[in-house]
Structures are given as C-alpha cells and as structure tokens.
Write a structure and sequence with these properties.
The chain has about 425 residues and is α+β, with helices and mostly antiparallel strands. The protein folds into 2 domains: about 15-175 and about 230-320, BirA Bifunctional Protein, domain 2, CATH 3.30.930; about 330-420, 3-Layer(aba) Sandwich (Rossmann fold), CATH 3.40.50.800. The protein is about 40% helix and about 20% strand. It is built from 15 helices and 16 strands. The strands form 3 sheets. An 8-stranded mixed β-sheet has the order 1-5-6-11-10-9-7-8, sandwiched between helices. A 5-stranded mixed β-sheet has the order 13-12-14-15-16, with helices on both faces. β9 and β10 (about 280-285) form a beta hairpin. It is elongated.
Amino acid sequence: MTTIRRATGMLDILPEDRRYWDWVIAVGSDLAGRYGFQRLDVPILEYTDLFARGVGMASDFFVQKEMYTIEELDGTSITLRPEFTAGIVRAYIQNGMSSWSQPVKLFTIGPIFRRERPQAGRYRQHSQFNCEILGETDPAADLEVMMVAMNLYRDLGYQGLTFQLNSTGCRECKPVYVVALKEFLADHLHKLADIDKERIQRNALRVLDSKEPGMDDLLADAPHIIDYLCEDCASHLADLRCLLEALGQSYIINFRLVRGIDYYTKTVFEVWAQGIGAQAAVCGGGRYDGLAEAVGGASTPGVGFGSGIERIVMGMKQQGLEPPTASQPEILIAHFGGETKTAAVRLAFLLRDAGLGARLAFARHRRSMKSQMREANRRQAKTVLILGESEVAEGMVAVRPLDGGDQTRVPLTAIVSLLKK
C-alpha cells in the first residue's frame, strides 16, 4: 500500500517548531493587550456570501479559484475563511458591538484557508495574528495598528524594519485614478503578461503589484494615486505621516503598494524587514471604511492588519532568532518494576499535582538502572529519583543529582518540599 502523506499546501508543525509558534503567540497576545485589544474568535466556516460581497469586483475569481467552498444539502454555500477581517466585521455587526464604547479594538489568532500555489512561508492552510480597530476614522487609529505590527517584529528580535506606506483613496477618488491607470496601461498592452491583462479587467490596481519581468521599468512612469486623492484622503494621509514622524518612525511612500482585496480604502501599509530573503514584506494591512456596508451593516470605519505566523517563524530562522527553550520536566523517576513501578507512578503524579515537571521511565518489564540513567541524560533531566524495593519498604526515595552531587535518601513525605527548594 502507498503511504498516505499530508495534503498539498498543508504543514505539520513539529515540537521543535512549535516553540517558535508559542513564543510568537505569547508576544503578540501580550502586545495586543498593552494596546487595549481584546481577544475575539470567529468561526472557521462562514457563509460564502460574506466573502464574495466583501472582496468586491474580484469576487468571482476569488470565490471560484481561491476559496474552499462547500455546498450544503439545503443549497446554502459555506466557506472555510480565506481571511479574518470580513468575519470580524460580521461579528461586530451581528453581536451589536456598535453599541459598545467606540472604537472596538479586537485581535484574533487562528488558521485561514486559500487554494493557491504553495510557496515559502505561504501554505493553503496558514495561521494569522490579526488586529482590527472598528468604529474610528482618526489616523491615530491607523498609527496604532501599524505600530502593533511593527512592535510585534521588534519584540521578536527582527532587525532592519521599516514601513512601506500608500493610500488607495476612497470610493470618490479611487475610480478617477483607476481610469487614469487603465489609460496608461492601454498604451502598453503589448508589454504586459497575460496575467496582468486579466488583472486590468478584474482589479486594475493589482497590476501595480505585478512581479512579471519588465514591469518595474514600465510602472516607473505610471500615474501615482497620491496625485488623485480627494481632500479628505489627502488630509488623512498627511496626518498619518505627521504622526509617524512624531514617533521617529521611518517609512517609505511606495506608489505601487496595494492590497489584494477590494475593501481597502485610504491607508495601506506593509512592514518590511532586511535579511529574510527576496520577499522583504513580512505583514500588511490597511483601512477598510466601506466593508461593513458591503456585508449588510451600517457604515463603520475600520483599520487592521494580519501577519502570517509561518512567515514570522521562517523570518526568525533566517535572522537567527531563537525563542526561549520550551520547558521540559527536569525530574526522571526510575524504578525496577513490580511494586517499585507502582510506587514510581504514584510519585510521578504526586509531583505533577504539586506543580513539578516529572517524567516516568517507562518499562513494561524490568529495566536496568544503566538504561534509565542514559534516558535521563538524553532527556536532559537534572535529577533522578530512584525507587528500589528498600526505598518502597521504608517510605524513602533516592535522589541522584546529575550535576555531580552526592546521591541521598529522603522520606517520600519530604520530597515535594525538597525539590521545590
């Protein structure tokens, strides 16, 4: 029989990598709490229409090509979430969060699913750390979201960090720019790859993000959206830039920076890092003031970002960043089988109940002490507790430090307090 392997685009997170994940989640959760964000968890499955309406013009392509969608027996369509923001906005509307004190600051952590070509740090199931501020138009809210993203990477030890910043305008000024961009691209159709010609029809802004050969030179002469911003959008960007400069935070205006989903308005940003290979962008986000209306709610401004944990871990390894070593039991309990094994099992659970990490030396049949000591060294235990027949009979336990100290015998009734000291 052929061996069953994991599905394409999925990832096994082994214990050695899990310590990176646990560290990222701990750092991110602590950081979000310091900024006043509260944890929210939304379902992995949502009605397909939530995402189809949220992504706008590109919805047909997105729904058919990139989302994992299931047809229910009653004819309804549900989808494994391809991103967090639409579900969080849906939860905000459905649970009456608009009546809460505004703005509402939320964060979440979990998997999202996209049927796309797997690549380094990007999988069909990948997990995100996600922060959103809902109910606030102040550019200072954009700044807070951006600085949570920036400080996540700083707190993890990343070096060479900077912001890439742009504005995608609003429903008033963005269409004017799109017309100008399409007119520019129409004069260069013969230079465009088929994928970019398709993007012009679906979402012309995505052409600015093209990685096709020759596009850097061609787009250097393309019109810039900043020159087409309405007064409100231009003022919003100017205020945000002043706030970044007040913090001494470096940023670069990137005229080609766009986001892949249509609901973004005004601010879009990415955090870039040096020394992590060809893809310098480590996370991105922006403002989405029209999303709540698109999914059936009242007009509600919002801004947020998502950061893929797989990409964070990959970047940590590339920059040589090590998380704290995962804690392991420092005590191994050795025995000789029979009644000594029963006593060893009782002792192991006694220590664990007292808050001490303890590992039991498994042995269905009698096992040599030499073998158990080798295991203790392999497990990097600091102390071995030995229960022989005489120890069990006398209510004692032998304590052997592995740092070169002398072996002693102590009453079982005193072992917890001794080890805690």
